[in-house]
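Re: the pair you flagged

First of the two:
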Amino acid sequence: MSTLNHLAIIMDGNRRWAKENSLPSFEGHRRGYDKMKEMGDLCIKKGIKTLSIYAFSTENWNRAQEEVSYLMDLLYDGLTKEIKTFNDKGIKLRIIGSRGRLSDKMKEAIVSAEEATKDNTAGTLNICLNYGGRLEVVEAVRKIMMQGVKPEEVTDQMISDNIWLAGQPEPDLIIRTSGEQRLSGFMTWESVYSELYFVKCHWPAFGEEDLDKAIEEFDRRNRRFGAN
């Protein structure tokens, strides 16, 4: 049995997959969204309790407005139309990121979805929406300062207790698809001892066999956490 408890994925390559298959870029995003749901089911099947997905970064606002709107609509539909599915499967839904630029209806959908699934115990799905690793740390520091903590009293644990992912385990393994070999601001604070795994296939083409290979590679690695 794998010791992998928290898997995080940078879902890269939706547009490239669509182009290679002579499909509109929006179809790549739709297939990518379907793949996210498929991975959630596979994680439950394989005993992985937490799945974190990099769905939309703070930099993604710079994309064409039409594409941004499509992505937001996809995520909104998931938050409003699939709650029964999450509950039937026992999945707790968490939305991780800054809510400052999100629409009011998206903010309301987030609150409602998290409340409706908060008691589920089969697994946790973290959707990282309007997420940026540096912004996460900045906002954590601001929260600490607002608590009146003196500079010399600030600790690593204090920051961990105030980031968006507070209360959850740090990712054991981070997978990035589509051949890129960088984290692009994903889990900047939490990834210090995460194992990294890069795969060439685009996200919509990532399947169970690819996931199994990643898990096998993770299990072969010796995680010393700086001890030796």
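Second of the two:
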Amino acid sequence: MLRKLVIPVIIMSLAWEGYAQDSVRTSRDIFVARGILVDGYTLWVAELDEVYVYPQKHFQNLRQQRKYTRLILNVKKAYPWAKLAGETMEEVNNHLVTLQTEKEQDEYLKQIEKELLDEYTEPLKKLTVTQGKILIKLVYRETGETSYKIVEFYRGKFSAFFWQALARLFGSNLKLDYDPYGEDRLIEEIVVQIENGQL
């Protein structure tokens, strides 16, 4: 008899404990909403993040699907480097404007070049040739200039010519631009989704 009475009491107490835990509110549960009055009605107003919707991809075969998946992985690998290049270039340009003489600018550029080479040479060597090609395109997207023009501006024409020749030797091209509505449409879609946290 006692056993028949104890089991329902335990079950009811567990249910009550679960109910009590569900009703506990924390600061994360509270959302302060803005509202506006329109014709006597209060309307909730919220700012939503922009979301880009692309048509669902249809692949003719498994090979095409794998190629697209590899493109996503390659863009994810190259994009942070392109962002870093754009940010670094902006910082360098802002600092160059504050320097008075050409000698100071040259010394500053040599110092920055050494720091960048020391810090990023090894990680960048780990990029594949395909990721390097995508990086060249994404650098153009971030800076508005081809990699060739950037090297030419900071290091001179001879250096730009040398690096272009080396890039061509490995099947790449520093003079590649970026066409988000044409040839590079898929890369642009992937980058936008990465920026919005969708990928």
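The beta strands are 34-38, 41-45.

-B.
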